[in-house]
Design goal:
It is found in: Membrane. It is a multi-pass membrane protein. By secondary structure, this protein is mostly helical. The chain is built from 10 helices and 3 strands, in the order ββαααβααααααα. It has a 3-stranded antiparallel beta sheet with strand order 1-2-3. It is globular and about 60 Å long.
Amino acid sequence: MPGGAWPARKPQARATRSPGQAGWASMATWRRDSRLTGSQRLLCSGLAGVLSLSLTAPLELATVLAQVGVARGHPRGPGAAACRVWRAEGPRALWKGNAVACVRLFPCSAVQLAAYRKFVVLLTDDLGHISQWRSIVAGSLAGMVSAIVTYPTDLIKTRLIVQNMLEPSYRGLLHAFSTIYQQEGFLALYRGVSLTVLGALPFSAGSLLVYMNLEKIWNGPRDRFSLLQNFANVCLAATVTQTLSFPFDTVKRKMQRMVRGPLYQKLQHQMPVGTRK
């Protein structure tokens, strides 16, 4: 799902009241952190992303397998799917598709950062200020753009996850890209991309919902939140947004799994036991 719903840089927040407004509007002046260059910031975020993806790869695999469905007579749920993969293909199979996810992270972050800057400029007022809700919208739009641009790699990651690693139909990112393009056509690389766009709507709505109620939750102003409170805010926002957008993500995974052409029967046979339909 599109990410980046929260501001990428920490703004200098100040309260202003416009004529005719009933309440306070939190505004932000954007300043670049001079301690790091743009490439250094991108590298740091990329490395942090690679670490987090690698640590949570088994959970991602289990979620995807649970989303694409299991056969009757087998236990359902992410945990059962992961156990079946472990027994059938070995422990290394729990990291299927993780290399593609890590490679995808760098172009995805670069596109998202460039798009975010453009949207911030478009949404900034004449005084150089941008409200927090507009920065959330900018982050959501940037995440949507980056997800669409790098969508083929997300589809390939799903295909690598659902195939049997012991009898692979795809040997890696480039081989999968070439095979899908030649046997299913270019549009097959974007199968399910519409769900990414539709899923961005509840994702953004969830972000705004959480942000607008933070002061009520903590009974205090946002600029006085502690580090622990900010961490809890991020976790809460992630929980709400992922829950709202999860149905769209499930349908997208099912569409990504769909195969047309000569590979259909082969992939159906090679899918991990208990995930065939």
